[in-house]
Amino acid sequence: MKYYASCLLLLLLAACDGGLWNNPYPVEDEGKSILYTAFTERPKHLDPAQAYSENEYEFLAQIYSPPLQYHYLKRPYQLIPLAAAKMPTVRYLDKSHRRLPDDAPGDLIAYSEYEISIKPNMRYQPHPAFVRDYMHLTPSDLSSVHSLNDFPETSTRLVTAADYAYQIKRLANPQLHQPIFGLMSEYIVGLKDYGAMLQQMIKNNPDASLDLNSISLPGVQVVDDTTYRIKIHGKYPQFIYWLAMPFFSPMPQEAELFYAQAGMRERNLTLDWWPVGSGPYYLSENDPNLRMILSRNPYYVSELYPGEGEPNDGQEGLLVDAGKSLPLIDKVVFSHEKETIPYWNKFLQGYYDASGISSDSFDQAVQVSVGGEASVTDAMKVQGITLSTSVATSTMYTGFNWLDPVVGGPSERSRKLRQAIAIAVDFEEFVSIFANGRGIPAQSPIPPGIFGYREGEAGINHYVYDWVNGAPKRKSIAEAKRMLAEAGYPDGLDEQTHQPLVINLDTTATGVGSKARLDWLRKQFDKINIQMVARSTDYNRFQDKVRKGDTQMFYWGWNADYPDPENFLFLLHGAQAKVGKGGENASNYSNPEYDKLFEQMKNMDNSQARQAIIDRMLEMLRRDSPWLWGYHPKNYVLQHDWLHNVKSNIMANNKLKYWRVDALQRDALRREWNQPARSPLWLSMAALLLFCIWMWRAIWKREQAK
Amino acid sequence: MDVAGDLEARTSKMIAYLIRRILYAIPILIGVNLFTFALFFVVNTPDDMARMQLGIKRVTPDAIENWKQQHGYDKPLMLNRAASGTGKITDTIFWQKSAGMFVLEFGFSDDGRSISREIATRMGPSLAIALPTFMIGLVVYVSFALLMTLFRATALDMAGVALCVVLMSISGLFYIIGGQFLVSKLWHLVPISGYAVGEDSIKFVLLPVLIGVVGGVGSSSRWYRTIFLDEIGKDYVRTARAKGLSELHVLFRHVLKNAMIPILTGVVVVIPLLFLGSLLTESFFGIPGLGSYTIDAINAQDFSVVRAMVFLGSLLYIVGLILTDISYTMVDPRVRLS
Fold first, then answer.
1. What architecture is the A394-635 domain classified under in CATH?
2. Neighboring chain B residues of A540 at a CB cutoff of 8 Å
3. Which of B60, B112, B193 minimises the CB distance to A342?
4. What CATH number is given for A62-268 in this structure?
5. Alpha carbon distances (Å) from A466 to A348, A416, A479, A631, A632
6. Which residues of B touch A183 (CB under 8 A)?
7. pLDDT per residue over A75-121, tens digit each?
8. Which residues of B touch A20 (CB under 8 A)?
9. Can you give the pTM of this predicted structure?
10. Does B1 touch chain A (CB under 8 A)?
11. ipTM summary value
12. Domain regions of chain A by residue span
C-alpha cells in the first residue's frame, strides 16, 4: 500500500513538470524515429509457411524478404526484385525436358523453370539461433529464459539460395498448417510426393524431428549460393506473384533446429512466434496481448526509396525521399487495441500516426461532397489530418447456388429470375447506408486496378445498368418485374402453383447490426414481390451448408492473393466447385464454355487477346448472373501531417519501410493537444474534502444531540 | 480439555474438513469437465475446429485431416472401440485433453501456445486492475453503507439509496466510455488505454480502478446497507447503546464485526476469481489480462483453452468456497468446521 501511495505521489509530482499525463509511451522515446500504430486482432501465425492472413502479413512482410515485391508507387501493380538481384528468368520445357521458345503454345509446355538469383550480401537479423553454443541447450540453460531477448548473445549469417529452397520444402511439412500446399503441390514438381514421404516418415517415427533435407525435392534445385531454380508443371504465369509472398521467404535451417530443442515450445519460443528474417525489421518484442515491436534490422542490405512513380506522386511529396536508404523509420510500435473508441481517440490525440475509420467515427472524420468526393471534415483539417482512399482488390458478393432448382442452373427461367433480382437489389444504396459510401458497386468479379477491368460504358453490366449521361444507371423496377414475369413469376407468384416465390438467404448474421442489413435486403426483394427469408445459423453450420450445396443464396467475399484476373475468375471455374471438389467456387457455377475460356486465359500474358477473352467471360457471367456482384470495398486511411510517404498500396504489405515520421513535429503537436486540465482534479479533491468535512460535522452534531 | 488440546482438536478437525472438501472437489471438477466437453462438441466438430484454425481460403480435406492428426482430434470423442484394454478410454479426445489438467498441465492451445505460460503472463495485469478495485471498492462500499446506516431513515439515507439506485441502473459500459471521455479525452489526465509493468503501470491502472470502484458503488453499498440494517435492530446493539456507547462506536465495533459473516460470504469467494480479470474493462483499456482469454477461445473454437479456463475457473471457485468457510471460523469463534 505504501508502495502504491508513494507511486501515486511520484505521479502527482511528475505531473507538475508540464509533461503529458496521458502519454501512453515512455518519455525517453520522444523525438525518436518511431511509428506508432495498432492492431485489433492478434496474429495466429508468424511462420511464413503457415501465415495467410492480412493481419499476419502486416508483420511478416516487414520481417521476411521473399524474392519479389510490388513497386510501392507505380500503378498498375508491378512486380520488382526484393531479395532477387533481378527479375527471375523462366524457361519453358517440353515433356522430354527440352527447351522450348518463349512464345511456345501453352499446350506444348510441360514444365516451366524459374531461375532466381538473390542478392549476394543479404544477412539475417540478429538471432540466438546463429550462435553455435545455443544449439545444444540443456533444461538448466533455459531455466532463466522466458523470452528470446533473454539470450545474451545473438549472431547472423549470409542468406543463401539453399535457405529459399529449404522454405519451399517447409511448405509440405505435415507438422505445420499448410495453407498453400494443396495448390503448390499441383505445380511444383515433386512437391506432392515429397509431402507424402514426410507424412510417412512421421508415421514411422512420430517422435523424431523431421530433417527436411534428408529427402530431395526434384522441383527445387540449388545452383550455387545465390541461385536456385523452381520447376513447375505446365505454364503458370501467376506463379511469379507467389514469389512476392512470405511463403517463399528464406528460412535458415538453424532456426528450426534451435526452436526444436527441448523446453523451447513450453516457453512459446517457436518459429511461429519469433520469426527469423532478413527483411528491414525484426520482431524485438512480442506480447500480442499488449504490443509488438519491430526494430530496424542492423544487417539489412538496404534498398533505396524509388525515384519514380505515378505522374502525381512528385506533386504529392511522395518522391522527396527518392534515393534514400530504406527503412526510413527505426522502430514500429504496434499496440493491441481491441476497441475502436480508444483507438480513434488516441489517434486524435496524436498517439497513433495513422488510423482507419470505424463507422462510429465516420461522420466525425469524413464529409462527402455532392459529387461524391470524400474529404476530411474541418475539425480534422485543423489537426492537419489527411485522408487517402483506395479501392481494395476484393469483392463482396451474394452468391446463388447453381445447384438449387429455383435460383440455380443455366435455364432461361432461372437466369431471368437472377437477373431480375440483380436489378432489384440496389447496391448503390447498400454502400451508401451500410458502408458510409466506402465501396463501389461491382460490375463483375474483377475490381478496378486489375487487368481485365474496364472503365466507362464498356465496363458496365448491361443486364443491370444502362449508360445514362456518362454514368451507369440501374434499370428500373418495372424492368425487373418484366424479367420476373418472363421467368414465370408474374408479380412474384409462381405461374404454375400460384404460390408466392420464396427465396432463402443463408447467413451467419445474427446480431442487432445484421438485422438492419437483412431488413434492407428483404425490402429489396419486396420491390419485385419476392419473399426473402433469412436463415441465420452459426458459422460452422453455414460453412457446412455451403460445402454441401444446401443453400439458395449466401453472402461471401474474396481478397485477392495477387493482382491478376485469374485470381478472381477462378472463383467461378467449374473445376473449383465447392460441392464435390472442395474448391473456391462457392456458387458451384458451371458453364463449359466459360471453363474453356478460363483455361485459355489463365496462362496468357496480359495482352489485347487476353482482354478479349476476359470480355467474353465477363459477358457470360453477367448474362448468367451466378452472383449479385455486390461491391468492391474502399479503404479509407487517415494520417497525421507528420507522417510522410503514405500511398495506398493494396498489394504491397511491406510498405512501412517507405514511411517517414517527423518526430519533432509530432512531439510539438502532441504537447499542444494534450495539456492536462488540472482544474477538474483540484475541484474533485476540494469537493471530496468538503464532503468529508460536512459529513464529519453531521456525525458530530448527531452525537452531540444524543 | 486445556487450551492447547482444544486448539489441536480444532486444527485436526479443520484439516479433516479440508481433505474432505478437496476430495469432494474431484468429482465436481470431473463433472464440470465432462459438461464442458459435451457442450463444446455438441456445437463444434473437430472438422469445424480445423477449418476455423486453417481459415477459409484454399483449405483442402487433406489439410483438415492433417490438422486433426497433429492436434490429437483424429481420435474418437469418448470411447475408442478400435483400441484394446484401457486404450478404449485413454485413446480418446476426452481423456487426452482432460487428464493432464488434474495435475495442472494445461498443454498447448490449438494455435500452438503454452496455455500455462499464457495464464501466468496475463494473470498479472488482470490482478493489477482487479485487486485494487476489489480492496478500495470494499472499503468504499462498506464505509458508504455504514454512513447510510448511521443516517438511516433520514433525508441523507434516502438520498444515498436513491444515488445507489441511479448508479446501479447505469450500464458498466457507460462508466467506461464516459470515464474515458471525461478523464482521458477531455481532461488528458491519464492515457485512454494501454499498459506497462512496474511503476509505469500506475497511470494506466488509475482510471480502470476508479471506474471499477464507482461502477460497483450502487449495488454493493445497497447490499451492505441491508446487512447492517439487519444487524442494527438486534438486541446486542440495543444493549451497547444502553451502555452509553456512541453510535459510531456501536457501528464500527459491534455492527460491522457481527455483519462480517454475510459480508465474507459474498467477498471471500470472489478473491481467487480476481485472477480471471474483467472482459469489458480489459478490452476497453487495452489491459493484456485474462479477461477475454476464454471468450476469444470460444470464438476461435479453441477447445484446449476453453476446457483449461473452465477447469481453472471451477477450481478457483471451489478454493474460494473453502476459504470462505475458513474465514467464518476466524471471524466467529462459534463456527466449527467438522
1. Roll (3.10)
2. 43-45, 48, 51-52, 301
3. B193
4. 3.90.76.10
5. 43, 17, 12, 18, 20
6. 58
7. 889 999 999 999 999 999 999 999 999 988 888 999 999 999 999 99
8. 188
9. 0.91
10. no
11. 0.90
12. 2-16+676-705, 62-268, 394-635
